[in-house]
Amino acid sequence: MLPLFLPLLKDFLYNQSLALLMQLRLGVMLGLFEDYRYRSESKKPALRMVDIIGLGTGPEFEKKFKYARDVSSGIIFGRQLVNSPANVLTPGALAEQASNIVSTYSDVFTATILNAEQCKDLKMGSYLGVAAASANPPHFIHLCYKPPSGPVNAKLALVGKGLTFDSGGYNIKTGPGCSIELMKFDMGGSAAVLGAAKALGQIKPLGVEVHFIVAACENMISGAGMRPGDIVTASNGKTIEVNNTDAEGRLTLADALVYACNQGVEKIVDLATLTGACRVALGPSIAGAFTPSDDLAKEVFEASEASGEKLWRMPLEESYWESMKSGAADMLNTGSRQGGAITAALFLKQFVDEKVQWMHIDMAGPVWNEKKRSATGFGIATLVEWVLKNAN
Q1: Does the annotation count 250 as an active-site position?
Q2: How many Å apart are CA 130 and CA 298, to the nearest integer?
Q3: Catalytic residue (one of 66, 123, 155, 173)
Q4: Are 100 and 194 in contact (CB under 8 A)?
Q5: Residue 360 belongs to what H/E stretch?
Q6: Active-site annotation holds for 173
Q7: Where would you tag: which of 20, 117, 129, 303 has the fewest CB atoms within 10 A of its CB?
Q8: CA 351, CA 259: separation in Å to the nearest integer?
Q9: What residues pair up with 270 in beta bridges, in sequence order?
């Protein structure tokens, strides 16, 4: 038996070496990264060179090394987006960052950036209702990745919540623990989506088409703003009674999900810093994952295991939808306090075509590192792994 076992052991050790090399590369690059862009003095890392000895050489090792570098650059980009203050990273500035990805990787990317009037033509009343109070106009971002050669066998969409600042609107965030000063990180979902786009622009996987979608805006307060009790109509015709203007992310995602389905995709993963309820349930290190599809859950959880990012599958308890029913419209935008992350996911489900496999990831916990007071870049590595699992 030993001669038969030895080749298997050799392959196992080889694959382990490849995985270790990738994690080392990621660890070194991300461990050295410090965001000094908004400080009067910047520091350079003392470490200048790292020699990795004993793990092997050859094309496969070089490929893994490059992959780790590409993913690291996407994660660093995502961290920088989330770290940027709201007076710098406006919806328009976020759209510019997305356009820069397209210009850098123009061989595989195209961009469509819609203004408020174009969104109005598409009947995105839910998204525009959130954006109405801000002096900074909304920008609806759609990047499309197509492989440089060969057929497309899978069409995917990544949708990210893009609230560059969330005041809560008329239901303004107040009191201890409201974290209004940190609401620049409410676009963490869009940072994950755009960070993945940057990494994939370098990797250039074959056989897969990916749509990156962000409904970017601010949730502010003004005489033109959305009021509690208002009714808005999403682009699929469903009406929503807004009983809480601080449950705004799901209103923007509603129109973004309808738009994603209209691109003819087979699978959608959306990411959002959506509910404090999910952070209470799972803490600061684990994101909640909601999906009616066991197959999609298997794919994404395998990707998260490879990336080292923590997800926990949460129930989509249909009976909880009862608390979301409105007396005046098709639905409310919030239900009872109990199970708030579940009712938020059930709300999003109303805007996804039944033929499309869909997962919602609530990343309100792991988007931010409290100890370091900095963004984590959560979700980017998992999204890249998942896209590659769907590629040739």
Answers
A1: yes
A2: 34
A3: 173
A4: no
A5: strand 357-362
A6: yes
A7: 117
A8: 9
A9: 159, 360
pLDDT tens-digit readout, 216-230: 999 999 999 999 999
Q: What does the pLDDT read at residue 46?
A: 63
Tokens at residue 75, please? 């994660």
Write the pLDDT tens digit of every residue in 258-314. 999 999 999 999 999 999 999 999 999 999 999 999 999 999 999 999 999 999 999
The backbone region for 228, taken as left when phi is positive above 0, alpha when psi lies in -120 to 50, beta otherwise, is: beta
Token representation of residue 108? 């595989």
Residue 374 tokens read as 């900095």
Q: Which three-class secondary structure string do you get for 35-88? A: CCCCCCCCCCCCCCCCCCCCCCCCHHHHHHHHHHHHHHHHHHHHHHHHHCCCCC
- Does residue 301 sit in helix, strand or coil? helix
Q: Is 240 left (phi over 0), alpha (psi -120 to 50) or beta?
A: beta
CA–CA dist 5, 10 (Å, integer): 9
Q: Which of 250, 267, 279, 349 is catalytic?
A: 250
Question: What are the distances in angstroms from CA 76 to CA 20, 27, 191, 195?
Answer: 20, 12, 10, 8
> Are 179 and 365 within 8 A, CB to CB?
no
Distances (CA, A) of 108 to 149, 181, 202, 208: 9, 37, 10, 11
**CA–CA dist 232, 243 (Å, integer):** 11
Alpha-carbon distance of 131 to 128, in angstroms, equals: 5
Q: How would you classify the pairing of strands 311-313 and 231-233? A: unpaired
Residues 6+ away with beta carbon under 8 Å from 361: 189, 269, 270, 271, 272, 287, 288, 289, 290, 300, 311, 379
Q: Which two tokens stand for residue 297?
A: 């859950």
> Can you tell me the distance from the alpha carbon of 302 to that of 116, in angstroms, rounded to the nearest whole number?
38
101 with 73: CB under 8 angstroms? Answer: no
d(Cα 286, Cα 348) in Å, to the nearest integer? 20
3-state helix, strand, coil in the chain (%, to 5): 45, 20, 40
